[in-house]
Amino acid sequence: MKEKIKAEAAKLGLDCCGIANQDGKSIIVCLFPYYIYEIKGNISKYAMISDYHLVCKKYLYDLMINLEIDDFDVYVDISPYDERKLAYKAGLGVIGKNRLLINNKYGSYVFIGLVVLNSIKLEADSPLNKACLNCGNCIKKCPGKALEENGFIKEKCLSDITQKKGKLSEIEKNLIIKTGMVWGCDECSQACPMNKKILETPIPEFKKNIISSLYLKDFEGLSNKEFKEKYKNRAFTWRGRNVLIRNCGVLEGCLPEDKL
pLDDT value at position 260? Predict the structure, then answer.
């Protein structure tokens, strides 16, 4: 059954699929690569593409339909499980000092999807005989100094800062200005030598309708409802327009007074 699952996943274009066990249940773990060559902008690469929550879930449900399995639960991002740990246990990569899963083929530019099998027990795969290079590049390059040798300070993470609501401190504003980012951060991935010569995503949904940058002009005249309709299939929409207006205003030097 395990080989059949991996074969069906491969037919869908998911060539990184493994099995892990936790809490007495077998869990199918699939990676969804999203790296695209030569794309630069002011938002993180994961947000340039169609909302991965929607794309990944569709693939996982299609996989279960093809396998004719009907007793399962699907999770992408919002999950009671530690996705990175399960992906590691399923032999799909190693966990770096940047706290990200790093896959041999696609580096750390991967989303992780889980299918929890409620009635089927499978033999788990084994972790890779490999580890993070421990070069520390991700720690050195972290703009907010959020990464530490054995820890992570969430409040200093640029990705978290660009997603928080409310006013930003001067330090936080300067981070946005310094990096030129209005949503997310890719610095720790870009600094990682294990991300060199990785492959581009094979998933067609992640190769089209790219939005590489956002500017204040993109939100002119839009109500929050209209904003959500315009960007309904984007991962950055969930926070609402005001956070992005604030961040773009910081970067463009014309922050609206009510977003200070």
Answer: 42
Q: How high is the pLDDT of residue 255?
A: 67
Q: HEC profile for 214-255?
A: CCHHHHCCCCHHHHHHHCCCECCHHHCHHHHHHHHHHHHCCC
For 22, the 3-state DSSP assignment is strand
Give the position of tokens 């990705």: 159
- State both tokens at 168: 């930003």
Helix, coil or strand: residue 205 = helix
Element (DSSP H or E) covering residue 187: helix 187-191
DSSP secondary structure, 57-100, as one string: HHHHHHHHHHHT--SEEEEESS-SS-HHHHHHHTTS-EE-TTS-
Q: Which of 184, 231, 201 is nearest to 15 (CA)?
A: 201
Q: What would the two tokens of residue 183 be?
A: 């949503």
73 annotated active-site: no
Q: Among 15, 62, 73, 77, which one carries the catalytic annotation?
A: 77
Residues 128-147: tens digit of each pLDDT: 999 999 999 999 999 999 99
pLDDT in tens, 162-218: 999 999 999 999 999 999 999 999 999 999 999 999 999 999 999 999 999 999 999
Give the separation between CA 180 and CA 19, rounded to whole angstroms.
39
Q: In this structure, are residues 146 and 158 in contact, taking their beta carbons and an 8 Å threshold?
A: yes
Instruction: Residue 131: count other Cβ atoms within 10 Å of its Cβ.
Output: 11
Q: What are phi and psi of 205, to 5 degrees?
A: -65, -25
Q: How confident is the model at residue 38 (pLDDT cuts 50, 70, 90)?
A: confident
Q: Tell me how far apart the alpha carbons of residues 96 and 84 are, in angstroms, rounded to a whole number.
A: 10
